[in-house]
Prior knowledge:
Blueprint: H1 3-6, H2 8-46, H3 51-60, H4 62-86, H5 98-136, H6 145-175, H7 185-206, H8 219-222, H9 224-246
Helix pairs in contact: 2-4, 2-6, 3-5, 4-5, 5-6, 5-7, 6-7, 6-9, 7-9
This protein binds protoporphyrin IX containing FE (HEM).
The site of protoporphyrin IX containing FE (HEM) has 25 residues, from helix 2, helix 4, helix 5 and helix 6.
Amino acid sequence: MHVLAASWPLFHRVGGVILSRWAHFLAGITWIGLLYYFNFVQTPSFATFDAPARNESTSKLVPNALWWFRWGAMLTLLSGISILAFQDQFNSDYFKTPSGVSISTGILLALVMFSNVWFVIWPNQKVVIANATNVLGGGQADPAAAASARKGLLASRTNTLLSIPMLFFMAATSHFAPFHTSATSGKRGAFLGIMVLITAILELNGLGVFGTEPGGTRAILDKHKNTIITGFVYAAVLIVLFEVFFS
Ligand code: HEM
């Protein structure tokens, strides 16, 4: 008999961990794959469509894509929490270790992204979709639709930016952080404090708090190329800080 079947506690722990991780990767690629499709493929392509083609696509294609997108985000979150629960990481000093700080960083970035999906992108896209469907049926255009599209775009680009450091720290938890040394609570706090501060500024920018028109602080979001570069710069900053505080 296999060792996992021989011992229920071991099966529960190891089986639960691997099943949660499997679900987590499947859901994560569904979510982030669609995020990259929206940002790198759909938005630039739609900009070249004629209005009737864009309205038809927005009315009939975008709702399907957004269904998989937001429920992918939900399952990613739930399976991630399930990994933590099965690995018993809630019950120990795990979050004080370099791996614990790494997963805290990944999760914080992912939670900001999750909130953007459910509380910014989806509500604004509902306005955009309703407008496209209405116009397609011969109705009047909603003057608020353009502003909603812009708000959704800024949040979506912010998620693309944050996904780059987020995924580094998800993977770093088991494959990079364990090669580091534990730090004092002061150093851990400093790393997490700087990370929260920079993330908060990027998120406020993505919510349009500093303005919504192109240019200014939105320059990092106006073109997806700028967004990708900023994402890698932010990841590099966090990696260097991690090295400084945990070596
Ligand atoms: C939404 C909140 C999220 C939570 C609570 C969460 C939680 C976790 C946890 C607990 C782990 C295990 C870390 C370890 O012990 O090695 C993990 C790993 C991972 N997560 Fe997430 N995660 C979230 C979002 C995401 C997203 C959006 C992605 C994107 C694809 C993602 C991809 C991964 C990957 C690739 C790993 C690496 C596993 C490994 O290296 O073995 N996670 N996550």
